[in-house]
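pipeline/complex-builder :: batch 7 item 3
reading input block
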Amino acid sequence: MRPLRRCVAALILLGTHSSAQAAIELRFESMSAPAVELSDVRIAAAGLDGGRARITAARALVAGRALQHVKLECGDFAVLPEVHCRGGRLSADGYGPWPIEFTLRGPQRALRVDVRLDAEVTATVTGALAGDAPQMRLVSSGVPLAFLVGAFPALKPYVPGAQVDVDATLTMTGAERTPRLRALLTARDGRFGSADGLRAADSLSAVVDIDVQRDGPDWRGTLVMDWRGGELLWDSIYLTGGGSVLSADFRLSPSALDLTSLALELAGIGRLTGDATLDRASTSLRAARVQGVELDLKVLNERFVQPLFAARGWPAFVMQGQADVTARLDNAGLHSATLTVRNGHVNDAAGRYSLQRLEANLPWRRDGATRMRVTAGDGRFGRVPVGRFVLDAEVAPDHVTVQPVRIPLLDAGLQLNLLRFHREDGRWTGDLSADLEPLSMPELTQALGWPRMAGSVGASVPHVRWRDGVLSLDGQLLIQVFGGYIAASGLQVIEPFGATPRVLSDLQMRYVDLDALTETFKFGRITGRLDGDVTGLELSRWVPLAFDARVLSSEGDYPRTISQSAVDSITALGGAGATAAIQRIFLGVFERFGYRRIGVSCRLRNGVCEMDGLSDRNGGFVLIEGGGVPAISVVGYNRRVDWQVLLERLARVTETKPVLQ
Amino acid sequence: MKTVHRIVLLCLLYAGAVWAQGNLEINTPAISQLRDAMQARHAQLAPHYASGALGLTADGRIALRDANVVPLAQRQTVQGLVAQENGDRDALYREIARANGHPEWEADIRSTFAQRWIGRAQSGWYVQSGGQWSRK
């Protein structure tokens, strides 16, 4: 204030010494007032008590914002008996011209400035420049945001727009006349958009409350931003409605912006707190710390996690529970973070898995290894219930190693002997080995909603590799079932979590107890043992596309009988026209028959199963070769069967037939 | 490559915006699944091709080339549709190669499909060539 006042005094003095009618021309190297600095100021006035005047400044710094070629032209300018400018026009490079009038009068140097920014927007500045606490107040309604964001070049590509009501008061406090600015900015119809349209907002309304004062070379104060409504899209994240508030204390130094006591209230999710330092020269983050306590995982997932997954075509999941989070960032990005989950529940949206009562402590750091622990109270994989288990893992930037763990499944358990991922040449690969302890088939089939099966099932997975989206089995996957076993070799699962998972495998089945199998499926009873080989099995989305399958009675000495009901089932599988083709000897008299061999093959291609049997007979193929007394042979004639039709017939005969005891 | 071209032509007759009826040798369950999914999705994508929001890329995929023409509330959904469509397209090329017993044809099939998709794009749709977008 003092320098400006000195300048005005000098002007008056010069005017007094000049003739009242003579032109006055003054030049100042610089002039300053609170929050205003002018350079190369030139004043040309017709006189001190009226007449035209022209005041120019080559450069101006107004509240830290640089303006070039500032020009004020007054139709009537006077400094006596009061300072006034009427019929004025104010402009600078990129701004104006705006009609302006001002007066400065009385011992309090009472100021009033009226500027018309456009046809509908007027800004009024009132205040008192003299006295112990000089102050100025700016009030304006509907100011285009473009007037205010010029100081933030980083925002320009986003073409921000809004109507802003401004109520700002500048006071000079204390003996040092320290400037303090309190500004309330109410924005409506806010919008912005990046060139690609993936970062955009519309109909935003927000209130920004700033209280800032000069502190040596710095400015310090508080900031509150209250988002009250509108739409916001930031890459994949879309938010509506507002209800989120950001508040912070800050210190703006020539080199940095320090934010302390930072708090972000996220509507429906919780509160994040922390602090941050931003480098002004590079407009980048130097360091930040963030903490969040008791965040709502359900809303957090819906608003922030699911959209990120959906945009990448990844499967969605539903999450509930509470989480605490801490994170530390530096100029290279996220340095370390810890996520703590309490009473969490995760359900795959497609129903493939769920984990309940999750407790997790998941620390991570960019430059070292951490130990994570996840405890699941219970859950299910598909329809199979999973019991409580604790997962301990070492996580580092280049590897994830899960400690051996037993996951209870029904009355048994899945023993994960090895689960390890590591990054090599920027690609993640994985290795797994596991054993499934013998699992009660009655319990398993009940859980799966399948027909009840007897016995147990166990499996051994010696080594599975994960490379480039493909799970490959080294060696054999051995499943013990129905008294025999099924071995899978050459097993590959391609993109198991993708849109079109595919499976390639060969299967070997040995010594499977037909009695247990047929009883289970209510097929009618067959006693005996069966071997089978399936080569070139291909599934897509878990549906068979192709295979070459052949099953044959096992070698050895064991009872070989088939019930009348089973014969009927086989007949039904052949279709309505097949009944006549089946040889029936003593059928209707005996309930059980003997046989010597069973043999059937199916070559699946393009949805059609090409069938064959033990040998050809009378233009057909022998499926069951009779033996003993009474004996029965079954001959099929339909060599091409639609796979879907076959499955439907199988479903019918296994669901409706009574169980033979 | 001639065989690849013939396969792609057959598929395109069967498939696409574009999917039409046909009686082809290539009709595995996997391709049918993909075809059905893409066909169902096409009704949602078509308005965005017409508006210029989406375009057909030179690598046989689709891209969100100008989200500004999509209402703000729908942009997130359209991003998801693009991700799903591209997942199915990638799988389609892989499946056709596999179904014909030549997985190594995948790149050729993709390339030929890309040309055919672009060739069959409706007037007004955006297509990519040499990294540049142009309107048919």
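note: Chain B has four helices and four strands.
queue -> next item
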